[in-house]
Amino acid sequence: MEKNAQSYKKREKTFKNFLIKSQKKSKQQKAKKQQKICEQLFKQKFDNLLLQIKDTKKLKQNIKLGPPIKYRWAAWKYHLFKQLTQQDVDLYNIIKNAQSKDETQIIKDLNRTFPDQIYFQPKSPELKQEEDFQNESLEKLRRILSSICIIYPNLGYCQGMNFLIGFMLLVNGGNEQEAFLMFKVLAEDPNFMLMGLYENDFPMLKFLEYCVGKSMKKYLKEVWNHILFLEIEYSYWLTKWILTLFLYSIPIQCCARLWDFLISNSIFGICELVVSMLYVLQDKILCLNDQIQFMQFFQSNNFEKLNMSQIVGLCEKFPVKNSCIAKYAKKFILKVEKDNQYALLYSFLCNQKNSKKSIVQ
C-alpha cells in the first residue's frame, strides 16, 4: 500500500527501534529482553509492548512519522484509548445486535462503502441489492453504524460515517469492537469532536471550513484568490474531505498517512494537510479555468500520485497554532452571529495552552 518502498522500510525500522528502546530494562537483562522483544515484533504481538510505553510524546512523534502497516492500528489504539473505561469496552457487546431508527438509510449506504475493496464486496454479484449485505464485513459495518446511532440518538446516522468506520475495519483487520471504540473516542475527545461534523447544522464542519479558508488565505493567497475567482464553493470539494477525513475522493492507501498525522495532532491537522496538498498541486490548480475543470480535477487521480509522507512533512511549513485557532474562533462566532459551541470550546482550550504547542498534550 505504500508507494515509496525505501521510505517505508526506513519508517518500519524507525518504529521497531522506537518500540525496542521504549522498554524499561536493566543493563544485565538488556540483550536478553531485546531479543525477546524482537521475537514479539516479528510475530506481530504488539499490544503488550505498546502498553509498556510511558513516553507518549515519542509515541505521537512515531505515529506522525508513519507506523508500518502492521503496527499502525496498535499505535493509534494505544495513543487514543487511554481514557476508555471498562464500561466503554463492554458497551458494544451489549448494544451491537439492537436496531436503530436509521437502519434503512444505513443499509442503503452499505454497498456504497469502498465498493472496489474485496473486503466489502458481496459474496456474489447477484447480491448487490440495497437490502442484501451477505458479506460478513458489511454486517460488521451495519452493526457498528447502528450502535453509534443508539449511543448518540440526537446525532443519528449521517453519510460519511460509513467511510470512517469502513476504513477503520480495513486498517484493524475487521475488529468491529475496536472500530466502534475508535469512533467513540474521536467523537468525544476534545481534540477531535467528530460529533460536531454530523450534528444538526454541522457546527464543527462549518468551523473547520472557515479555518481551512483562513489558512489558505494566509499561506496560499494566489490559490485562494483563484478559487474565489472561479466561485468554487466548499461543497464542491472541502466539505466531503472533512466529513470523511479525506476518504471520499483520496485513495484509502494514501489516507492512512493523513490519518497518522491527524491522530498524532488534532482535528485541526486537516487545515495543515489541505494546505500542504494544495501547495504541491498549486501550479495545476492555477491552470483550471472553470468550475467543471475544478470538480474534475478533484475527482481524478491527482491525489493518488502524491507522496503522502512528503505532504505530512510539509505540514510543518504551514502550522495552525492554538493562538490562530482561538483567533479564528472569535472571528467565526462574530461572522455567523450566533454561538457555535465548537468554536467556543476551541477558543477556551487554546487560550489555556501555550500558542506554540498543539492542542494535544
Automatic annotation (TrEMBL):
<dbReference type="GO" id="GO:0005096">
    <property type="term" value="F:GTPase activator activity"/>
</dbReference>
<feature type="domain" description="Rab-GAP TBC">
    <location>
        <begin position="66"/>
        <end position="266"/>
    </location>
</feature>
<dbReference type="InterPro" id="IPR050302">
    <property type="entry name" value="Rab_GAP_TBC_domain"/>
</dbReference>
<dbReference type="Pfam" id="PF00566">
    <property type="entry name" value="RabGAP-TBC"/>
</dbReference>
<dbReference type="InterPro" id="IPR035969">
    <property type="entry name" value="Rab-GAP_TBC_sf"/>
</dbReference>
<dbReference type="GO" id="GO:0031267">
    <property type="term" value="F:small GTPase binding"/>
</dbReference>
<dbReference type="InterPro" id="IPR000195">
    <property type="entry name" value="Rab-GAP-TBC_dom"/>
</dbReference>
<protein>
    <submittedName>
        <fullName>TBC domain protein</fullName>
    </submittedName>
</protein>
